[in-house]
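The following block was generated as part of the benchmark described in Methods. Ligand: CO-5-methoxybenzimidazolylcobamide.
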Amino acid sequence: MREKILNDIKSALEKGNREGVVKHTKAAVDAGIEIRDILNNGLIAGMEIIGNKFKANEVFIPEVLISAKAMHAGMSLLEPHYVKCGIKPIGKVVIGTVKGDLHDIGKNIVSMMLKGACFAIEDFGIDVPPQKFVDAAKVGDVDIIAMSALLTTSMNAMRETINALKNSGLRDKVKVMVGGAPITQEFADSIGADSYARDAAVAVDKARELLSKG
Ligand code: B1M
């Protein structure tokens, strides 16, 4: 039963069938399948199939976009199950996909899981210029700046953002966490980030760790 529903989600996502993704994701929730299982082995697994087909030139940008929209619809059904917190957040995270990069699925998952872990989230969306992160750091109540990048060509915008924070005298005021498919610990170290997370679950652990370091 679990396997069938998760396969239905994957297959609907692969076909860009938004209604199907919504229907099967709802069915998975109703069947009591763990939310993290639905996310990892249904939605993310389906997106991986699309990613592989895109790489092999079997599908193209329009199909990927349609599947991405179906993915968002599925994720929005899961979000309420993650976010069950009290009134007082444990810290504030400003998150965004860096300048030049329009990929937001992974960033949205990280954002959703952080919300679920009771962080207050300000999501700047995609294509976020360094100055916007700097302006957020100036305001004062931000604990962590979290940047996502999916393109090797946009990774450097993370370095630019950290340098812009340094040049504005704000680097010590906030912690910086980076992630996304092309990012590695080595890269994170080389640009002076405080933390790197390979996936959304690790991002939550790392964010908690950063808060405890003060
Ligand atoms: Co694009 N794309 N794309 N794309 N796309 C990739 C990334 C690519 C790997 C595909 C490929 O060629 N195999 C490739 C990048 C190659 C490279 O640079 N190394 C690529 C390319 C080339 C492009 C274009 C240049 C294509 C073109 O126009 N010719 C173009 C660029 C546009 C731009 O950004 N300027 C482009 C466009 C698009 C779409 C718009 C069509 C669409 C994005 C839609 C959207 O996001 N709303 C899209 C998609 C969907 C993909 C793939 C297929 C899927 C990405 C995804 O959502 N994965 C991707 C191929 C692939 O990844 N296999 C591909 C699922 C998601 C859950 O994973 O985002 O990795 P991910 O997030 C994970 C972790 O990385 C981590 O946690 C997440 C969940 O656990 N994580 C963090 C992410 N951010 C984090 C931040 C953290 C911590 C962890 O802390 C702050």
